[in-house]
Amino acid sequence: MTPPLPTRAALPDELLDRPQWVGWRTQTAGGNETKIPLDVNGGYASATDASTWTTFDEALAYATAGEADGVGFVFTDEDPYVGVALDACRERETGATEDWAQVIVDRLDSYTEVDPSGSGYHVIVRGSLPPGGDRTGGLELYERARFLTVTGDRVDETPDCAADRTTELTAIYQAYVESGESPDVPSPVDAEGDSTQSTSLAALDAPGNDLTDEMVVKRASNTANSLEFRRLWAGDADAYDSREDADSALCSILAFWTGGDPEQMDRLFRESGLYRGKWDEVHFADGETYGEKLIARALEEATEFYDPSGFSSAVRRTASKGEHDHSDGHDTTRDVGTASAADADDTAGAHSDDHSDTHAADHSGDNTGNHSGDRERRLNELQERVESLVEENDRLRDELAEERTRRRELEATDDERDDDDGGWSLFGWFK
């Protein structure tokens, strides 16, 4: 069966922009069918020879002319993509999918299409694989020096882009390829986590904190690198490859500032400009919604959480459940914003007080409480000052924008007047 050819509109733009395309044709050897890559200039293509590759449009034209059965994409060391082939797992007529394959499709949650045979799936993600093999049973992974047939027959409810999924790829690799476990038996990887850790919201260990929703938004908005949060909070996803990437980024920021409280993260996301109906839609075989999955993923990947106590700026997650290591800085793999200058100043002040008052503390335990109260008051005062300065900066920026608009309108009016008078003005000459 020769599948229909893909269109540009059906494929991720990022793949279309790369000249890593070939044609392909089915050949039978030894009673087995195999797909051979073709050079559009005639002859065979090679997954290790870039001179035999071409653009998507040229490969498509070659196949449209009947010279090839379809088009394929070549994976290389220079691109960030990985292809995942799931074979013999789909009923052609009904589209019914075997459980093991559905789990992998749900877990990767990236661009997914039906393969040329109609009995399997191809998933394309951004990420990297651990070193080692790339095949087990009906699962095959493509990262370099391989080509993957592309049909454009995208599966409903899967993203239209290649999402970043290194963590998920590693979990799948360890569960199947590394272990040698065939994917068509009950899987140690479920839609919530890998074989050693569940990302169930109830099972995730996080310290939490006492910040109200309003305080979380204020503090996240007033950090040195708060611009990302402000844009995401306002619903601006232009800096990201996809809406899902933007949603994930906001969830990671909220995970840090809420101390990993999933219920508070959910409430706040619903108040943001990124919230849409998809948040509450069930997208996974285990019944989890899109929003629940993003929150679980953010909490699973988080390494630090904000601590407003005044003794430190963050609490780092440790391997032991219920134990946390206090650190004086926030250094997480995902940039979710650092504690504000107010927090940093307060921490420094806390250390100073501790050293200067050690002798007094030996005589009276009440001093400890007094210093804690002083630190808390200083923290609140500094926080209010920062918020006031931010508000003043926003006001001045708005006034400047209004003044620029007014000036442009005035200049445009003067230009029109000059044209009507057929002469020139001193104001126009100075411009």
Automatic annotation (TrEMBL):
<feature type="compositionally biased region" description="Basic and acidic residues">
    <location>
        <begin position="351"/>
        <end position="365"/>
    </location>
</feature>
<feature type="compositionally biased region" description="Acidic residues">
    <location>
        <begin position="412"/>
        <end position="422"/>
    </location>
</feature>
<feature type="region of interest" description="Disordered">
    <location>
        <begin position="316"/>
        <end position="431"/>
    </location>
</feature>
<feature type="compositionally biased region" description="Basic and acidic residues">
    <location>
        <begin position="320"/>
        <end position="334"/>
    </location>
</feature>
<dbReference type="InterPro" id="IPR054468">
    <property type="entry name" value="NrSPol-like_HBD"/>
</dbReference>
<dbReference type="Pfam" id="PF22763">
    <property type="entry name" value="NrS1-1_pol-like_HBD"/>
</dbReference>
<feature type="compositionally biased region" description="Basic and acidic residues">
    <location>
        <begin position="372"/>
        <end position="411"/>
    </location>
</feature>
<protein>
    <recommendedName>
        <fullName>NrS-1 polymerase-like HBD domain-containing protein</fullName>
    </recommendedName>
</protein>
<feature type="domain" description="NrS-1 polymerase-like HBD">
    <location>
        <begin position="245"/>
        <end position="308"/>
    </location>
</feature>
<feature type="compositionally biased region" description="Low complexity">
    <location>
        <begin position="337"/>
        <end position="350"/>
    </location>
</feature>
